[in-house]
Amino acid sequence: MKSREQEYRELFMAEALEYYDAMSRHLSELERNPQDGAALNELFRLMHNLKANARAMGFVDMGEVAHKMETLFGQIRGQERTFTGLLVTLTFQSVDVLGNMIRAVGAGQDTADAKPLLENLDRLIKGEELVEARATQTEEEADADASRKLELSDLVYIPVKKLDNLLNLVGELVIDRDRILTLAAELGHPALEATARHLFRISDDLQYSVMDVRLVGVGVLLNKFPRVVRDVAAAENKQVELVLTGQDVQIDRNVLQLITDALLHLVRNGVSHGLEDAATRQAAGKPAIGKLRISALTERDDVLLQVQDDGRGIDTEAVRQKAIRKGVVTAEVAATLDEEGVWALLFEPGFSMAEKITDISGRGVGLDVVKLAIDSLGGRLRVASELGKGTAFTLVLPTSIAVKGALLIELDERAYAVPLLHTDTVLALPNDQIFAVGGLLMTRVQDENVPLVPLRQLLYAEGDEPLPRATRADLDPAMTLHQVLIVSYNNRRLGLLVDRFLRQQNIVVKSLSKPLDTIDLFGGVTLLGSGQLCLVLDVPALTRLFLAKRP
Asked: Where does the HPt domain lie (predicted)?
């Protein structure tokens, strides 16, 4: 198993060797035509990128050579000098030195002393006379060039689109594999069963190998935030210390891509609305410099991305009153909401605390876009806050969106899949543990009253009519135990009454085709081993429908 450091080194090597080849090519083009602006711009870009990458990896001398070369090409672009004479000789020598440094890194060797070259580059930048300058090569250098072999990187770049297609094909294979396994079990043929088990192992390994190829370190996104925080802090006239942790945590590249805007929104929101200015912080007995932490960690099969600040915190009562004034919730319902229930209102479309951000400790500038992004991935959002101490938003994300763990349930002799990410617990409730309040059936789960609703009522609901008011008399007296699936979304729990639970298994989710893709209650479809199509329930949509139609 490769270490993360080794993987980063290999990625650096692959990119650096490409840079080196491109530098040599563009230098030759520039030598033939010193007015070639495209070649000059590309050389400047390559040196800039190599400088940044080398410094990030700790290759100081390589970074310094690239930095001084970048400066020289910047002077040429600025028409402070022309690409002639000693400048041509020294730049070719510098690229050769960079090539030797890159190869030394790949071989695990120490790089040669770059001090003489750096001194000459410094002198050339300042317009001074070069030390030991030489328009020819030494005999040793000529021999080394003559014996040098062309090198290819051990790594290849693959467009994400190709990986997506490969994963889609693997998904098709997994579906057919499950069907073959089911058929083999039904026929009871020993040889077929043995072949089916072998197919299962191979396809399983292939599936996870393809998924593993798509994994990237969260750092590729997190490392872009120092500049973002610096710019927002400067615009807000605030002092902010950014702390990044967990950059090595691995996640599917597509998941990271889909969550980029949401994370950016939370970070900007944290600096702009979460952290106070220096004077306010000092008056409250806090350090003048606010702290913002962006961290990543794993929790079972999920990846957690957290944005945490030590700022104002959420003023729960202010949010409650603002939600009532904005018509997001009625005063009667708002009065029944606990702290987490009130915080969930921040993510309702159109809700914002921005109008009075200087008067109350608030959040909520377009946070509904964050929730929509997480819902699209089948993720969850956790909020924790303490007034005057700070706030933490935690995005709970699947490692991969290609294969999902799901619980299969049955309703009216049809199977449905519920993503495990939104399942809380399963219960077998006797009649005496179910009660009715305000037209809703309820049960007590971990010291919390959780509403219950028959799943068929939600699936078959029509128009804008509210759900029928329920009483205990609606319960089937012939059933001694009621099968209930507790799901959670946006810090709310909902109990779904189903016919029975089937099993838990990984599923490959396919998008619904038109016109079924317009039905919000379903997040896709999968094919079971029996060949039966199985709709995947969209828990956020079911929860929203229940809230909209509750009696």
From this structure: 1-105
With tokens 């798509």, the residue in question is 214
Domain interval for residue 60: 4-147
- pLDDT tens digits for range 256-276: 888 888 899 899 989 988 999
Name the phi and psi angles at 304, rounded to 5: -110, 125
Q: What is the tens place of the pLDDT at every residue in 525-544?
A: 887 766 678 888 988 888 88
339 has a pLDDT exceeding 60: yes
- Note whether 471 and 481 are within 8 A (CB): no
Q: In 3-state terms, what secondary structure has residue 308?
A: strand
Q: Is residue 94 part of a domain?
A: yes
Number of compact structural domains in the chain = 4
Together in a domain, 121 and 13: yes
Shared domain check, 308 and 167 = no
CB atoms within 10 A of CB 447: 5
Report the distance separating Cα 62 and Cα 72, nearest Å.
Answer: 16
CATH label of the domain that carries residue 500? 2.40.50.180
Q: Quick check: is 154 in a domain?
A: no
pLDDT over 90 for what percent of the chain? 19
Half-sphere exposure of residue 229: CA atoms within 13 angstroms, side-chain side: 26
Enter the tokens of residue 1.
Answer: 């198993």
Give every CB contact of residue 277 below 8 A, 6+ residues apart in sequence.
236, 237, 238
